[in-house]
């Protein structure tokens, strides 16, 4: 009887130990399951965050590409406007100088630098128009009583007198002050014209320099856009748009 009780106790203890062992394994499995669930939730959360960041990055890249495309279009429009202005300015450089300025310069005996510049640029130099009173005007200046030519014919004096009275523009022999004032005004007008031509040439040089800077900036911007499209993996359509803009 005692032996049976011992056997029963031994069996009960063995089953109790087995049950405890199973319970410990179940606890371990539950902990493992909970850990796996937590890791799965963290992985899902990380995946959602990655997707959100990818979407934001894609939208930001598209926005930057659109912004750069707009900048390139603006630069193209500005380049076209500047080329049009350059063409207009180049057209004005060949505009003939007013005839009265050329005649006054010739009357002063100064070098016609404007005509020399036109010849250098390839334009045809046209001789100044002949006026019937040019010789009379020169003779009036040289023919002052202090410089009177004793060999001068009386008929020539009569012709000069007629030309002077007919035009009403030439000074008399006693108007030396008027002639000097006219010379000063002509010299001042010539200096002003030379300064104006110099400023216009400087403006053309500045325009050409700015135009080259805009072209270089446009090329750099095109390279940046292409590099951005390649790095961000934009669609083929976006790349085609960039190439089309660069070609235009």
What does this structure look like?
The chain is mainly alpha-helical. It has two domains: 19-92 and 234-247; 98-224, no CATH class. It is built from seven helices and no strands. The longest helix has 92 residues, at 2-93. The chain is rod-shaped and about 170 Å long. The chain starts with a helix and ends with a helix. Mean pLDDT is 67; it is low at 93-101, 110-114, 122-169 and 234-238.
Average of the residue pLDDT scores:
67
Number of domains: 2
Bin the strand percentage: under 5%
Shape: rod-shaped
- Ranges where pLDDT stays below 50 over 5 or more residues in a row are 93-101, 110-114, 122-169, 234-238
Radius of gyration, taken over Cα atoms and rounded to an integer in Å: 49 Å
Terminal Cα span: 109 Å
List the secondary-structure elements in sequence, H or E: HHHHHHH
SS-derived structural category: mainly alpha
The count of β-strands is 0
Number of helices: 7
Largest sheet: number of strands, sense, barrel closure: none
What's the helical proportion of residues?
A: over 70%
Keywords: Coiled coil
Region (Disordered): 144-170
Coiled coil: 19-53, 179-224
Structural key phrases:
81% helix; mainly alpha; rod-shaped; single chain; 248 residues
Summarize the topology.
Layout: H1 2-93, H2 99-108, H3 113-120, H4 134-142, H5 154-167, H6 176-232, H7 236-247
Helix pairs in contact: 1-6, 2-6, 4-5, 6-7
């Amino acid at each position: 009887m005692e032996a049976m009780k011992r056997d029963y106790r031994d069996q009960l203890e063995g089953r109790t130990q087995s049950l405890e062992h199973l319970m410990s394994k179940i606890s371990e499995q539950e902990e493992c399951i909970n850990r796996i669930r937590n890791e799965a939730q963290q992985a899902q959360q990380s995946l959602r965050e990655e997707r959100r960041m990818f979407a934001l990055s894609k939208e930001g890249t598209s926005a930057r590409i659109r912004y750069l495309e707009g900048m390139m279009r603006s630069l193209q429009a500005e380049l076209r406007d500047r080329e049009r202005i350059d063409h207009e300015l180049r057209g004005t450089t060949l505009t003939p100088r007013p005839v009265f300025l050329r005649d006054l310069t010739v009357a002063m005996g100064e070098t016609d630098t404007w005509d020399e510049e036109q010849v250098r640029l390839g334009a045809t130099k046209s001789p100044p128009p002949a006026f019937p009173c040019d010789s009379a005007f020169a003779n009036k200046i040289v023919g002052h009583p202090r410089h009177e030519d004793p060999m001068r014919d009386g008929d020539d004096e009569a012709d000069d007198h007629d030309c002077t009275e007919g035009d009403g523009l030439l000074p008399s022999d006693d108007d030396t002050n008027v002639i000097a004032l006219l010379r000063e005004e002509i010299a001042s007008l010539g200096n002003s014209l030379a300064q104006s031509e110099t400023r216009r040439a400087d403006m053309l040089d500045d325009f050409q320099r700015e135009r080259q800077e805009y072209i270089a900036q446009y090329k750099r911007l095109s390279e940046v856009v292409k590099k951005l499209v390649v790095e961000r993996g934009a669609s083929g359509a976006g790349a085609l748009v960039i190439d089309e803009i660069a070609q235009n």
